[in-house]
Write a structure and sequence with these properties.
Pfam families: Asparaginase_II (PF06089). This is L-asparaginase II. InterPro entries: Asparaginase_II (IPR010349). The two termini are about 25 Å apart. The protein is built from twelve helices and eleven strands. α1 (about 55-65) runs parallel beside α5 (about 135-150), α2 packs across α5 and α10 (about 240-245) packs antiparallel against α12. It has a domain at about 10-65 and about 160-320: Beta-lactamase (3-Layer(aba) Sandwich). The protein has helices spanning about 55-65, 70-75, 85-95, 115-125, 135-150, 160-175, 195-205, 220-230, 230-235, 240-245, 285-295, 300-305; strands spanning about 10-15, 20-30, 35-40, 45-50, 180-185, 190-195, 250-255, 260-265, 270-275, 310, 315-320. The strands form two sheets. Strands 1, 2, 3, 7, 8, 9, 10 and 11 form an eight-stranded antiparallel β-sheet that branches. Strands 4-6-5 form a three-stranded antiparallel β-sheet. The longest helix has 14 residues, at about 135-150.
């Protein structure tokens, strides 16, 4: 297992007033449509905890084991959402369709990610809640999968629960990498290790899954179609994951905590990255540069990746990719 610090290289420089103020190190891998490595910075085989970037892979596993939802609910299953009102309503509807309520959720209670939504939630007298935590769509879908498969909903987060065994197998199969370590994610669900190139390989598989009539129902194609059709549900207002998918037709992109991002293109190209210090600050700039290396038009993704450095609320510099 390659340690994440081994072989890390500069991915982005933070410029303030023309001076390099900070440098973010990490790893990037870009796959060509044929699966060959087109660009590797750092160690493409580094072992990572892909955090929420694993959600689309877990959603494939849920569909394989009986989850039956429409594309909006499936996008929420893949989401790290803002908990804006439509997100929360969608999670509640997903639960209700399975005969469940938000009391069945066992993810970590939290405030909405969106500042306006958080203010409104608190103003209404609410405390931190599982339904407003950004992973509530995934947890609702996990519970609905248990109902569909005839598995107990109690204890669904347990590593040895049949649901989690099934999702671990799906992650290993889609990435082509054995899961060497399992730990606990911030939301309380099991978190499976993989490699950066394995993560890119899985996103390529999702994004290029055939969408003709004969393949439209495959789990991979369904996840890709749901995310591409409903990017706002995957993240929310102002979020770069939403904006990247809106900018590039057919792109499947998912951010993850601690500096992870993965994206797949309909032609089979793919990108995965890990920022060594776990910062979210350079992720959008680095992903935009990596997508350009994968063949995406710079004019489409450049504005999404643009990350200003502010002084007194005004741009005085920028985060610039190092490649």
């Amino acid at each position: 297992m390659t340690d994440v610090a081994t072989g890390a290289v500069p991915l982005a420089r933070v410029l303030r007033g023309g001076i390099v103020e900070s440098v973010h190190l990490g790893h990037v891998v870009v796959l060509a449509p044929d699966g060959e490595v087109r660009l590797a910075l750092g160690e493409p085989d580094v072992t990572v905890l892909a955090r929420s970037s694993l959600k689309p892979l877990q959603a494939v596993g849920m569909l394989r084991h009986g989850l039956r939802v429409d594309d909006r609910a499936l996008a929420l299953a893949c989401a790290s959402h803002n908990a804006e009102p439509e997100h929360v309503a969608g999670v509640r509807a997903l639960l209700a369709d399975a005969g469940l309520t938000e009391r069945d959720l066992d993810n970590t209670p939290d405030w909405p990610l969106d500042p306006d939504a958080a203010f409104a939630w608190r103003a209404a007298g609410h405390d931190r809640a599982p339904v407003t935590q950004n992973c509530s769509g995934k947890h609702a879908a996990m519970l609905a999968t248990c109902v569909a498969a005839g598995w107990p909903t109690a204890g669904y987060r347990g590593e040895d629960h049949p649901l989690q065994r099934a999702l671990r197998a799906a992650v290993a199969e889609l990435t082509g990498v054995a899961v060497e370590r399992t730990t606990i994610d911030g939301c309380g669900a099991p978190l499976f290790s993989t490699t950066l190139v394995g993560l890119a390989r899985a996103f390529a598989r999702l994004a290029r899954a055939p969408h003709d009539e004969g393949h439209a129902g495959t789990p991979e194609a369904r996840v890709a179609a749901a995310m591409a059709a409903h990017p706002w549900l995957v993240a929310g207002a102002g979020r770069d994951a939403t904006r990247f998918m809106q900018a590039v037709p057919g792109l499947v992109a998912k951010d993850g905590a601690d500096g992870v991002y993965a994206a797949g293109l309909p032609d089979g190209g793919a990108v995965a990255l890990k920022v060594l210090d776990g910062s979210a600050r350079p992720r959008a700039a680095v992903l935009a540069a990596a997508l350009v290396a994968a063949g995406v038009d710079r004019g489409a993704v450049g504005p999404v990746g643009a990350t200003p450095v502010l002084g007194h609320g005004e741009p005085v510099g920028s985060v610039e990719p190092a490649f």
